[in-house]
Amino acid sequence: MMFSTACSSLRLLIVAKNGMLEPWLERKGIPDATQILVYFAVAKLGDPPIDGKTDTDPDGLTAACGKWAPAVAARLHSAGLSCKVLGPAEFQKPMLEKLIWICAFNLVGARHPGATVGIVEKDYADEVTALIKELADAASTAKGVSFDSGIESRLCAYARSVAHFPTALKEFEWRNGWFYELTKKATASGLKDPCPLHTSWLKELKAI
Fold first, then answer.
1. Which residues face 84 on adjacent strands?
2. I want to staple 138 with a disulfide (CB 3.0 to 4.6 A). Which of 31, 65, 180, 194 is the partner?
3. Are 175 and 102 in contact (CB under 8 A)?
4. 6: confidence class by pLDDT, cuts 50, 70, 90
5. Domain 93-204 belongs to what topology?
6. Contact 49, 79 (CB under 8 A)
7. CB within 8 A of 156, min separation 6: which ones?
8. Which residue has the higher pLDDT, 55 or 8?
9. Average pLDDT, whole number, for the chain?
10. Highest taxon of the source (predicted)?
């Protein structure tokens, strides 16, 4: 998602992200664009937003990075929502964790038609935690990032906070497609697939 606002001759671009947008931002020549990592949600039109506060992260998970991050945080705070302001290096870890969350929960949910995020967390915990670990290892190697311990617990805690959300394998290019690109690059070089479980389940669902 992208939001832009104009004020006289000044035009601002703010990217609200739920996937891996770094390659696209680089291609467009705007790698330093202000970004918001959204951890709040609205179940349906008219409902109040659900803030991204969990039992493992009670201060909230939403974060912003870039020139206009303080302004973004101030707007969200005025609406009663949490938002941290992070530097580019700090932003990498939570950004990748959200990507892993989206990819893991939606892929496992797609294997079990009708499963919500909460059902995946409750009934298919073994599947989703195994996939989270695999994707975290792959992302860590690809981006040179060391995740804090307990990533599986943190992502499952967020799932519980939005348990009613449906699951679906969608926006492939921006989500699971990033991990599949890591697979293709590795195997094309004669290396081991860094995401074998992910690849197997994508094939099972005929997504690749």
1. 63
2. 194
3. yes
4. very low
5. N-(1-d-carboxylethyl)-l-norvaline Dehydrogenase; domain 2 (1.10.1040)
6. yes
7. 121, 125, 128, 129
8. 55
9. 87
10. Eukaryota
pLDDT in tens, 51-93: 888 888 888 889 998 888 999 899 999 989 999 999 988 998 9
The tokens describing 183, both together, are 């697979």
The model's pLDDT over 160-204, given as tens digits with 9 standing for 90+, comes to 988 989 999 998 988 999 999 999 999 999 999 999 999 999 999
Encode pLDDT of 21-40 as tens digits: 676 667 767 667 788 888 88
The separation between CA 201 and the C-alpha centre of its own chain, rounded to angstroms, equals 19
Task: Compute how many other C-beta atoms are within 10 angstroms of the C-beta atom of residue 21.
Answer: 20
Q: What is the sign of the dihedral through the CA atoms of 52, 53, 54 and 58?
A: positive
Closest CA to 180 of 124, 144, 139: 139
Residue 185 is encoded by which pair of tokens? 């690059």
- Round to whole Å and give the CA distance between 201 and 196: 9
Place of tokens 């499952």: 156
Length of the chain: 208
